[in-house]
Amino acid sequence: MACRDFLKGERAAKSSGIMKENYTVMHLDLSSLDSVRQFVANFKQSSQSLDVLVCNAVVYLPTAKEPAYTADGFELSFGTNHLGHFLLARLLLDDLKQSDYPSKRHHCWLNQYDIIGNTNTLAGNVPPKANLGDMRGLAAGLYSGDFDGAKAYKDSKVCNMLMMQEFHRRYHEETGITFASLYPRHIPLFRLLFPRFQKYITKGYVSKDESGKILAQVVSDPSLTKSGVYWSWNNNSASFENQLSEEASDVSKARKVWEISEKLVWLA
């Protein structure tokens, strides 16, 4: 369990009935590239195997009118939701390659808010819409123009979806690792902001327990091993391959975001 808060991690494991000998809590703050690198070093020293990587950390500040920044000087949503996960996945790729897990699955779970960054959905068309533009601000890890916390979050989700596909194109055939994202229909903050809209119009609300079961299903279900897929669930709890928006499936844009991200996290 990679967590910012040891005590919260311990409490979560205990409340789930996980025996102490079956989990290890390790510190990881995805808003800090140094923390990501230190976590990877600690993990490798632990001699544990890595079979599945679930990326689920998120910063969501929808009412923010001024940007906040990471310790590395990046806009907080972009730096945490995208760059932190990108660096983590890149640095752990070799460990995933060595896994003897039956299907060699690597899951970038891009968390439960992906749908609002996907503009071919009803929720994704709620203003402000995700749009990476000419990516000049992205290349600096900053935010160009008037800041909107909700748009910054949505843009970071577009980066996540683009990177899932780019990981798939670059590494799936060579390694056999599955790269996928999912949207389990669970948007907890929307219960505060848009409860009736979410429950009765988008039908996007499910319980925490159900969203957890969906995550476990993607990790373990042999029918969900296809790589490069954005999984969703309908109201009957049946999985399907969701379609990404033009913005979130642009191959040339994905390549450019990858190259920019490599430079920002000092991998290129």
TrEMBL record:
The keyword Cell membrane does not apply. It is found in: Plastid, Chloroplast. It is an enzyme of class 1 (oxidoreductase). Pathway: Porphyrin-containing compound metabolism; chlorophyll biosynthesis. GO terms for molecular function: protochlorophyllide reductase activity. Pfam families: adh_short. It catalyses: chlorophyllide a + NADP(+) = protochlorophyllide a + NADPH + H(+). One of its GO terms (cellular component) is chloroplast. Its EC number is 1.3.1.33. The keyword Acetylation does not apply. Phototransformation of protochlorophyllide (Pchlide) to chlorophyllide (Chlide). PANTHER family: PROTOCHLOROPHYLLIDE REDUCTASE A, CHLOROPLASTIC, PROTOCHLOROPHYLLIDE REDUCTASE C, CHLOROPLASTIC. Belongs to the short-chain dehydrogenases/reductases (SDR) family. POR subfamily. This is NADPH-protochlorophyllide oxidoreductase. It comes from Artemisia annua.
